[in-house]
Description:
This protein is of the alpha/beta class.
Amino acid sequence: MSQEGEITYSEAIEKAKASIIRFPLSPIRGIPLMNYIAQNWDSIWAFRPDPSDLLIATYPKAGTTWTQEIVDLLLHNGDADVCRRAPTPVRSPFLEICSPPPIPSGLDLLRKMEPPRVIKTHLPFQLVPPGFWENKCKAIYVARNAKDNLVSYFYFDKMNQTQPEPGPWEGYIQKFMRGELSWGSWYDHVKDYWTEKEKHNILYLFYEDMKENPRREVERIMKYLDLTLSDDIIDRIVELTSFKSMKENPMANYSCVPRPVFDESISPFMRKGEVGDWTNHFTADQSKMFDEDYEKQMKGANIPFRTQL
Ligand code: A3P
């Protein structure tokens, strides 16, 4: 999108602004997806990655952008200038995203890139194009505790004018618990990747671990990618991917998506970046009700989520 004569990603969004609506959801194999994605499902499912491509998979709002930035810096030896060559969704396309023209779809962007590519997805495991596993692509999954993930998604759905209206907080909790938000059930999402991680060599990370000790998690990703960087460069990557640095970085903070599509006057994309913000939103009764349901939905899963540090 930055080649001569082509419009930039932000310009494409500006041009498409009038056709942006809160797209209704349409199910694909029982998973609610934005109808634009559902309409293009066959070509998404048929996508054939290169074996060198890397997949970054998450439930929405689990720390995708953070991980994309860490990976891009690791792959470019911590070179901040190179990693400012384009905004996140252009450097690391969003596999299934489709929007009104002229906004390029994830597949449009991927077609113009040479492998190895870093590809983002929110698809639950069973909807990831099988070519990723057939070609033994590496994949990083990032999971975030349900309550903080829910709060983050609530604010995102308020500000992102392409997502269904979130409605009031109380009802939003119910929709999350029933798996009715875009990309479906958080519970199934985190459980299915957890179950599949050994079989497919998926690196399963936790947002809370990244907050607790970012250096340790950056090193974990580095090793998974078979890279060896110096201590100084690792330190620099940790600094460049702090919440503060990324919030100030126009190529990592989603300021590439202009108003009114992402309406940052409602809530910024880089909102708080904390563990435990849920305590500012759940009442004691809501927390109890949520926890009781959580026990049932996560029974036997044994995934070590932490809701506080
Ligand atoms: P909050 O809404 O809780 O602030 P995603 O990239 O998957 O959409 O996730 C967005 C969430 O990750 C937001 O959470 C955002 O602030 C947080 N985030 C983004 N970059 C971060 C960073 N460098 N450190 C911590 N949190 C970050």
